From TrEMBL:
Belongs to the adenylate kinase family. AK6 subfamily. Interacts with small ribosomal subunit protein uS11. Not a structural component of 43S pre-ribosomes, but transiently interacts with them by binding to uS11. It comes from Populus euphratica (Euphrates poplar). The gene is LOC105138574. Broad-specificity nucleoside monophosphate (NMP) kinase that catalyzes the reversible transfer of the terminal phosphate group between nucleoside triphosphates and monophosphates. Has also ATPase activity. Involved in the late cytoplasmic maturation steps of the 40S ribosomal particles, specifically 18S rRNA maturation. While NMP activity is not required for ribosome maturation, ATPase activity is. Associates transiently with small ribosomal subunit protein uS11. ATP hydrolysis breaks the interaction with uS11. Residues 41-64 are annotated as: NMPbind. Residues 1-25 are annotated as: Disordered. GO terms for molecular function: AMP kinase activity; ATP binding; ATP hydrolysis activity. It comes from the Eukaryota. Pfam families: AAA_18. It is found in: Cytoplasm; Nucleus. SUPFAM superfamilies: P-loop containing nucleoside triphosphate hydrolases. GO terms for biological process: ribosomal small subunit biogenesis; rRNA processing. This is Adenylate kinase isoenzyme 6 homolog. GO terms for cellular component: cytoplasm; nucleus.
Amino acid sequence: MAQRDSDMRKKPNILITGTPGTGKTTTASALAEATQFRHINIGDLVKEKNLHDGWDDQFDCYIINEDLVCDELEDIMEEGGNIVDYHGCDFFPERWFDQVVVLQTDNSVLYDRLSKRGYSETKISNNMECEIFQVLLEEAKESYPEGIVVALRSDSIDDITNNIATLTHWLTTWKTVP
């Protein structure tokens, strides 16, 4: 019987996803610092490596090329020890992740965060609808095994601190099957 990729890795990989403004990058950065794992911000990677198909004027963002992103990450993900941060999750191979974290934020908190970023009303409205209808949680549940998807609140600094403690504990107890 073939081994799963997670059985061969010495360290697990975590995906932190959620609607823009839920604290993905803040959480991933702090978790990477606490655990010495590699933080991979997909948005930054797309810009740095030109892994996109142009610019979307309506949503004021790059149109990522999912195939190029996956090709770029393939070898790195096999090594393990990665915390990937992105607002989507359904295009990543299931085998890459041992834990998928969906950050969720109260709508009034999220609205304020997106407004402070200078998002257009269209972009704010789109992201608010995604959060209200739990689009990213549903996407994660449809894309990954039930046992590895977890939703965490991310309304405050205390929530982020608690999430980092929870995830650090999970990382220290993760073991590969011999």
